[in-house]
Task: inverse folding
């Protein structure tokens, strides 16, 4: 069974930092692009970033460029999102999700349950 | 960025009804479109990939189609478990973008 599990969320003050993790089991992690998607409370979905199989290609939504950094460790079947200079508008549930195929331009087939990040003083 | 305009934002229907949700892209995206279902407190679930392909395990009452920059998700013969929020997503260009969502409620 495929499982994705996010961790690392919590309450942080504006300007602070957090590191989110996504642990994966049940499929060959190293062969898939991986993504982060967030959802502010009561709002819709927003794609945040993705990373290719060996970590050499990374893409971000403009609103997080320069503040967030995506990475992965294939030996640990894990992906990470470093969140710096956090703002109130970054408050959201952060989901990790795998790309369906082996390319970056693909739908997201497996999702974790999400981890809540709250940015507030 | 590619804008995905999804309509309606909300929809009421009864068990057994058929419904259609539409997503219009601000530019051509070929068939690089997916549909997701999300229930309260849960992660999204992939229903349709590449505009019209049914994800494994998804009931055949979910049908995706495309015409130019307009994409539709049709659900035939609604079942109780279908009442949820639905999102389209383009993955043709970065940043990938989602529609605003359609909340399907029971009448």
Result:
């Amino acid at each position: 069974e495929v499982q994705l599990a996010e961790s690392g969320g919590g309450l942080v003050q504006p300007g602070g930092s957090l590191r989110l993790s996504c642990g994966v089991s049940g499929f060959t992690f190293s062969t898939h692009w991986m993504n982060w998607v967030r959802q502010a409370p009561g709002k819709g979905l927003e794609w945040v970033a993705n990373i290719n199989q060996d970590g050499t290609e990374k893409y971000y939504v403009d609103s997080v460029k320069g503040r967030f950094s995506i990475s992965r460790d294939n030996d640990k079947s894990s992906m990470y999102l470093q969140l710096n200079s956090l703002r109130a508008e970054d408050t959201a549930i952060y989901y990790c999700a795998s790309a369906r195929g082996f390319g970056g331009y693909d739908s997201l087939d497996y999702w974790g349950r999400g981890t809540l990040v709250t940015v507030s003083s | 960025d590619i804008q995905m305009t999804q309509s309606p934002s909300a929809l009421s229907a009864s068990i057994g009804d058929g419904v259609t949700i539409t997503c219009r892209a601000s530019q051509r995206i070929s068939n690089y479109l997916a549909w997701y279902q999300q229930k309260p407190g849960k992660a999204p679930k992939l229903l349709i990939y590449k505009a019209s392909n049914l994800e494994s395990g998804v009931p055949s009452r979910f049908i995706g189609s495309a015409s130019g920059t307009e994409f539709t998700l049709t659900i035939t013969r609604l079942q109780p478990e279908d009442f949820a929020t639905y999102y389209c997503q383009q993955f043709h260009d970065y940043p990938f973008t989602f529609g605003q969502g359609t909340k399907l409620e029971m009448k």
